[in-house]
Amino acid sequence: QVQLVESGGGLVQPGGSLRLSCTSSGFTLDHYAIGWFRQAPGKQRDGISCFSSRDSSTTYYTDSIKGRFTMSKDNAKNTVYLQMNSLKPEDSAVYYCAPTWCEGPNPRPLYDSWGQGTRVTVSS
């Protein structure tokens, strides 16, 4: 079973930045199109960004985060990052990473298996 671990969340003021990390001890992230998802209280979990399944050099972002968030990866550390800048209160959510099928900004998770996520709270 695929197990990913997210970290890096916290409390930040509007306009601030955070960098989330996604790693795994069980498998190589670079072998998959990793995506980021988030779930705000009372809402469904939505995909927000992902590396393309067809071209790993292409990254998709939803309009709500485009220009503010950036995905990157460090294969030597087996880690995928989500750099989040210019954070807004509406970005508050639990963030998850997962292997996906990614052909656009709303990736489809490959497995029905999720880590514990990392909570981001944007508030003054």
Features:
124 residues, mainly beta, seven-stranded mixed beta sheet, four-stranded antiparallel beta sheet, 11 strands
Biggest pleated sheet: 7 strands, mixed
Order of helices and strands: EEEEEEEEEEE
Helix proportion of residues, in percent? under 10%
Question: How would you state the average pLDDT, rounded?
Answer: 95
Low-confidence stretches: none
3D structure, described in words:
By secondary structure, this protein is mostly beta strands. The protein has no helices and eleven strands. Strand 5 and strand 6 (59-61) form a beta hairpin. The chain is globular. The mean pLDDT is 95.
At a glance:
This protein has 124 residues and is mainly beta. Helices cover 0% and strands 45% of the residues. The chain contains no helices and eleven strands.
Any chance you could write out the topology, listing elements then pairs?
Elements lengths: L4 E3 L2 E3 L5 E6 L9 E7 L6 E6 L7 E3 L7 E6 L4 E6 L8 E9 L6 E2 L8 E5 L2
Parallel strand pairs: 2-11
Antiparallel strand pairs: 1-3, 3-8, 4-5, 4-9, 5-6, 7-8, 9-10, 9-11
